[in-house]
Amino acid sequence: PERSVPDAVRTTCPYCGVGCGVTASVDGTGLASVKGDASHPSNFGRLCSKGSALAETLSLDDRVLHPRIDGRTADWDEALDLVAAKFRSTIAEHGPDAVAFYVSGQLLTEDYYVANKLMKGFIGSGNIDTNSRLCMASSVAGHRRAFGADTVPGTYEDLELTDLAVLVGSNLAWCHPVLFQRLLAAKAARPDMKIVVVDPRRTATAEAADLFLPIAPNGDVALFNGLLSHLAREGKADAGFVSAHTSGLDDALAASAADIEITAAGTGLSTADIATFFQLFAATEKVVTVYSQGVNQSVSGTDKVNAMINCHLFTGRIGRPGMGPFSVTGQPNAMGGREVGGLANQLAAHMDFDEIARDRVARFWGTDRLASRPGLKAVDLFEAVGDGRVKAIWIMGTNPVVSMPAANRVRDALARCPFVVVSDVVSGADTAALAHVLLPAAAWGEKDGTVTNSERRISRQRPFLPLPGDARSDWWIMTQVAQRLGFKKAFAYEGPADIFREHAALSAFENDGTRDFDIGAFENVTNTDYEALEPFQWPAPKGGNPPTHDGRFFATGRFYTSDTRARFIPTPVQAKQDYSGLRLNTGRIRDQWHTMTRTGKTPRLASHIAEPFAELHPSDASQLGVTPAGLVQITSAHGAAVARALVTDRQQPGSVFVPMHWTTEYAPAARIDAAVSPAVDPVSGQPGLKLTDVAVTPF
Ligand code: SF4
């Protein structure tokens, strides 16, 4: 489709879940420039290093500009015909569960909506999962257990209004820098505000802490169980809130019973530090507990989330300014994907696969093929590709050969898979190399739609560059395949506004206020108003009366469970595992994004940290014969990677940290996820990407 592109637009950054607004301009020679959007209510003009460098990442080097079939250039009709034919024949021969989509928090909500509708609504399988499974699935599961829905209670402003910010498993300074800047600015204005950082590593975020708790890996449940016990001993319950709006406290208290010594044994922290933290939490009314991947990417991630939420429910510190548990998402549209049903275990618009919801969604979509049950979650999905249960997979906007745990197994599974379709922007990604059909997707700057950030704020991503070559929006590519599969009417969208209206209408369909996700106010938005859409927080129901207090859920004490009460969840501490080697932790660095397909294009960002590194404590380095700046190999039962030793006491003895970003393209042996364990949290299915038993040896 032809489209005209204006010279300057307000859009959003494509990187982290802060979701900053940016203004992009293109000069007469076609050169783009990007600056912060001062009118965007999530960043007020601020940008971090990655956002500031966006204009430097827009080159067409390595772009997929035309469809390719088995490496040769093809036209759209041939490629789309082939994808539809292979999916149709696989479904006819083996059933709908023999095909799958693996999608991404890089997709816009409109793309995500079409992918979910096609797979769950019309192909008739639940087999669509997203790389948000690696990011926020434990938060989703924790929210649903406690609140009855995947509801983030707070807003960024709570980090500025609070008197105590507890950052757990979150290197906010590097991973959500603009939110961290907002927190630091608030602390500078009100120096009495306290920041506590709970992390196994002394990160850049920890440098700003009033109290740093260098917790043992996976010690979080023990810490917050100990805190709940302490709050109970000290009589810090909000008894009125607990009795009127919650249930299950006795079981949670019984499961969490621990004194400070037991907490110290479970966390590796000193009793003095624990006592200081507990007293601070108990004595401060306005507390926000911010958490991210150090919590979620764990085999006990969901319990960690609920252990923290338990403490907020017990003290009634939720839904009020400056208070509440707050999950910050990794990706720009991790939350938008959750809204449409991009996770295999959610149907659509925060609805489950129960009979009532299935009937409702089937009537709304006008389908008799709706999936009857949840599909395979990411790790299980690639397992099924490997053992032949899934015979055709379409991967969109993500690079699982680098980012999935046990990544060599994923690579080998895709190499064996009879039919692999990849929609992507760059051809050099490890996953793209395994595609039978590679489809040229639109990139940031060309895409047109919406994203939802960590504070439930929906913002537009607008195009300011023309679509290069044959590149097309993901939603358009999918509708062409859907129509070739015979689903013409259900996928007859003319643009992203059509899809957004339908998404909004579904969120409001037969929603009497008992479902949290509701943007029904936009179900009839005009194309012109969609184009001009200002950032807004959901819920935004028809009639314009959101059941929130200044954007905060639960101020009324009404939750989304059947009896409207929040649930305390018992979170017993799991038995400690034995490790024969070091404990591998993985994560982000400040200036790179995911598998570097964008940020790797600018030398400026590489100047912060140019190479993959393995952060080791001096005592481990000495014991292992590792010299500072020498190469080391990190080996597990699943695979190996090579990085340069960074010897520092910021790291705990017994642990090693390696960043997740480097791909074969940038450093041939540095795919650290090859070594990462595929063990998952049994509730959320999220892999424990932050804890694998590894050997570290000089290379
Ligand atoms: Fe982009 Fe996140 Fe940086 Fe904002 S904080 S500019 S969203 S990477």
Automatic annotation (TrEMBL):
What is its cofactor? [4Fe-4S] cluster; Mo-bis(molybdopterin guanine dinucleotide)
Q: Biological process (GO) annotations?
A: cellular respiration; nitrate assimilation
GO CC field = membrane; oxidoreductase complex
What superkingdom does the record give? Bacteria
Q: Is the Iron keyword given for this protein?
A: yes
Record-level Gene Ontology MF annotations: 4 iron, 4 sulfur cluster binding; metal ion binding; molybdopterin cofactor binding; oxidoreductase activity
**Full protein name:** Nitrate reductase
The chain positions of domain 4Fe-4S Mo/W bis-MGD-type read: 6-62
